[in-house]
């Protein structure tokens, strides 16, 4: 719930009781713990039923050579057991997405000041909200995780959130995908940043921020 003050700012109220020390009730914690336990058991079953393999290569790579070795092993394993790997990947992804959304009470408890700031900015920029959200996605003004969690709470329309996310994350997605495709041919990490890559990222960045710059110049 929100309350508009005389100076135009919007104050977020409600959501978390002022006298409660913990933002969730006993039954909410019990249900969440049950779901978590069910997912953990399911992931354990998936792990135990996966075909045996040499897991010695599964470690955090500390060099480009170790990263390429890990890629080769994972590619071979995926080719041999495509269905099992796909099912396991989907289970892990659903698990991560389920428990990365803490809910309104926990968001209020974790980031009250940032949530207040974000709420005020969204209220002030309602007419040019797409440009503002696009600006946030392209710059480190606010962490992406916070934007993902707080946007529905501060009433950012879904279509604006969707468009800003799709366009704003293109540069990071481009670098990630290109790195994955070229991993087998890389000789150094510097090969990721050749002239073509930098020019493409620059072009994407210019196109993405142009609406924001035009809007600011008009205002």
TrEMBL record:
The chain crosses the membrane at residues 29-50, 86-111, 132-154, 160-181, 193-214. Keywords: Membrane, Transmembrane, Transmembrane helix. Residues 86-180 form the VTT domain. GO terms for biological process: autophagosome assembly. The keyword Transmembrane applies. It is found in: Membrane. InterPro entries: TM41A/B, VTT_dom. GO terms for cellular component: membrane. Pfam families: VTT_dom. It is a multi-pass membrane protein. PANTHER family: PTHR43220, SNARE ASSOCIATED GOLGI PROTEIN FAMILY. This is Putative membrane protein. It comes from Prunus yedoensis var. nudiflora.
């Amino acid at each position: 719930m929100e309350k508009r003050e005389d100076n135009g700012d919007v104050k977020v109220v409600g959501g978390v009781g002022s006298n409660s020390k913990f933002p969730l009730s006993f039954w909410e914690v019990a249900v969440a713990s049950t779901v978590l336990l069910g997912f953990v058991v399911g992931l354990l079953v998936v792990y135990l039923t996966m075909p045996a393999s040499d897991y010695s290569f599964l470690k955090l790579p500390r060099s480009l050579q170790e990263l390429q070795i890990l890629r080769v092993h994972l590619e071979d394993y995926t080719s041999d057991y495509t269905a099992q790997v796909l099912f396991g990947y989907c289970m892990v992804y659903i698990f991560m997405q389920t428990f990365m959304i803490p809910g309104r009470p926990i968001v209020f408890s974790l980031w009250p000041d940032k949530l207040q700031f974000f709420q005020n900015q969204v209220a002030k920029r309602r007419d040019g909200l797409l440009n503002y959200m696009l600006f946030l996605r392209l710059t480190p003004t606010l962490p992406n995780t916070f934007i993902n969690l707080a946007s529905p709470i501060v009433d950012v329309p879904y279509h604006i959130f969707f468009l800003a996310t799709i366009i704003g994350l293109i540069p990071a997605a481009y670098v990630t995908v290109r790195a994955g495709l070229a991993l087998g041919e890389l000789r150094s990490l510097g090969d990721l940043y050749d002239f073509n890559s930098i020019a493409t990222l620059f072009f994407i960045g210019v196109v993405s921020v142009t609406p924001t710059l035009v809007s600011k110049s008009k205002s």
